[in-house]
Design a protein that fits this description.
Keywords: ATP-binding, Nucleotide-binding, Transport. One of its GO terms (biological process) is phosphate ion transmembrane transport. One of its GO terms (cellular component) is membrane. One of its GO terms (molecular function) is ATP hydrolysis activity. The structure is a single chain. With 250 residues, the chain is an alpha/beta fold. The chain has one domain: Rossmann fold. The protein is 38% helix and 26% strand. The strands form two sheets. It has a six-stranded mixed β-sheet, sandwiched between helices. A four-stranded antiparallel β-sheet has the order 2-1-4-5, covered by helices on one side. A hairpin with a 2-residue loop joins strand 4 and strand 5. Helix 4 packs across helix 6. The chain is globular, with a radius of gyration of 18 Å.
Length: 250
């Protein structure tokens, strides 16, 4: 599994300097939680890792992001391939207007990863990895929109896993779920760390404390502090980190 190395990353939205001189090394097969107050640049940093920011023509980016020593902002990079290798689980589930089966099969089909029996097996394995198979095995031809919100989020996770990414990004991926469904997603992410490099944005400090192996604390577009989660939560080094944790934990 890859390490993610970020070097001198700067991002502008028009004239607004959103991220300033970000330098990080995020560990493989662990969960990195990006935390900090609203508007500090958490989601911008996350979306830079799969080049989703390219969809906004007002964005300007300098610096490097290396995934296993491969610079995803280098010349002649296949952006589609980057987004295949770096999956995303968004805040709200967005199932495609297709059947449950076709939602999961969509990525492998367009990328030519599997067909026929191999595709059926990949769909099955992805739904099992997302702990959804037992609930939908008998209704794969039904519309994905008939699923509950929690099931739809697990379906979106299965869809992301089906293209066999190396990295999984989670942007407030439990924020729209009820507590039971949210805990189910947390349990899934905890299991998936064995096979993927996970990077998550969360406003929920308790969630970060439960899941994170590594923490990045951001403030006004900069990284104020980062390090192993136990060290960060037990003895934060930066005064901003201490003040933020005191406020959020109470």
């Amino acid at each position: 599994m890859p390490d993610i190395t970020i070097r001198n990353l700067n991002i502008w939205y028009g004239s607004t300097h959103a991220l300033r001189n970000i330098n990080l090394e995020l560990p493989d097969r662990q969960i990195t939680a990006i935390i900090g107050p609203s508007g500090c640049g958490k989601s911008t940093l996350l979306k830079s890792i799969n080049r989703l920011l390219d969809l906004n023509d007002q964005v300007r980016i300098t610096g490097q992001i290396l995934i296993d020593d491969y610079d995803i902002y280098g010349k002649n990079v296949d952006v589609t391939e980057v987004r295949t290798q770096v999956g995303m689980l968004a805040q709200k589930p967005f199932p495609l207007p297709l059947s449950i089966y076709d939602n999961v099969a969509y990525g492998p089909r367009i990328h030519g990863l599997a067909r026929g029996k191999d595709l059926n097996q990949l769909v099955t394995e992805s739904l099992k990895a997302a702990r959804l198979w037992d609930e939908v095995a008998h209704r794969l031809k039904e519309s994905a929109h008939k699923l509950s919100v929690g099931q739809q989020q697990r379906l979106c996770l299965a869809r992301a896993l089906a293209v066999q990414p190396a990295v999984l990004l989670c942007d407030e991926s439990t924020a729209s779920l009820d507590p039971l469904a949210a805990r189910g997603i947390e349990e899934l992410l905890n299991t998936l760390r064995q096979h993927y490099t996970l990077v998550m944005v969360t406003h929920d400090i308790d969630q970060a404390h439960r899941l994170a192996d590594y923490v990045v604390f951001m403030w006004l577009g900069e990284v104020a502090e980062h390090g192993p989660a136990p060290q960060f939560f037990q003895q934060p080094q930066h005064s901003l980190s201490r003040a933020y944790l005191a406020r959020e934990i109470g």
